[in-house]
Amino acid sequence: MNPGAILAGNVCIGDKSWVGIGAVVRQSVSIGENVIVGVGVAVLFNLPDGVTALGFPARY
Q: 5, 19, 38, 55: which sits with the fewest CB atoms below 10 Å from its CB?
């Protein structure tokens, strides 16, 4: 996880996943293993293993 990323409560991040600077993750969201969340991305839903999420809101 990078500085400036905002995680709400009860967020679960899998092994070897990366959350970019300024990303925002909504409460109770799960991010799978080997996931890349880009800079400034808003994650509003669960992300499966191995995806790259970009955009506001996140798309993969």
A: 55
